Amino acid sequence: KKSIKAAVSSGMSTHRKLSRMGKVQKKNHSGLDATFLGRAKVLKKLQISLKDFRRLCILKGVYPREPRGRAPRNKKGQVFYHIKDVRALAHEPLLDKFREFKSFMKKVRRNANRNEKDEALRKQTTMAPKYTLHHLVRERYPRFADALGDLD
Question: Which of 54, 62, 89, 135 suits 40 as a labelling partner, its CA being 20 to 30 A distant?
Fold first, then answer.
């Protein structure tokens, strides 16, 4: 005799249930939503402006991709980026430099609006954050021969 507190089962084991009904897939864990992101979602994820995103994509050589299957009706004409490309952009050191520059320009603008023009000019010339693109060049052309081959 079973106790009152015992769970009422359908008489099917979990293994049999899985084979019959299949596993319930989590949302955005398969299909188009799992592998591709729209541009707006990418901008939100990376927390940068469209202008900076375009600049970063050009420097890194990331282009929008067309999903293998056709896009859903409600997403026609939308630009998709592969999730792996977005992850690579998220770990890019240039992203931090873009953010740093944005906050620096805020400070310069604040000084300019307070009529501290000389202070703004001094900040702009001496304290501007600098960044290099050496790592991007090395990434794209690991050997000197590769760079020469791209010139022709």
Answer: 135
pLDDT above 70 covers a percentage of the chain that reads: 88
Neighbour-count burial of 69, counting CB atoms closer than 10 A to its CB (0-12 exposed, 13-18 middle, 19+ buried): exposed
Beta bridge mates, 152: none
Query: What value does the CA radius of gyration of the chain take, rounded to a whole number of Å?
Result: 26
Quick: pLDDT tens for 65-106: 888 776 666 667 788 999 999 999 999 999 999 999 999 889
What's at 32, amino acid-wise? L
Q: Please, are residues 80 and 65 in contact by the beta-carbon 8 Å criterion?
A: yes
Q: What amino acid is encoded at 58 in this protein?
A: I
Structure tokens at 123: 């900040």
pTM for this one? 0.73
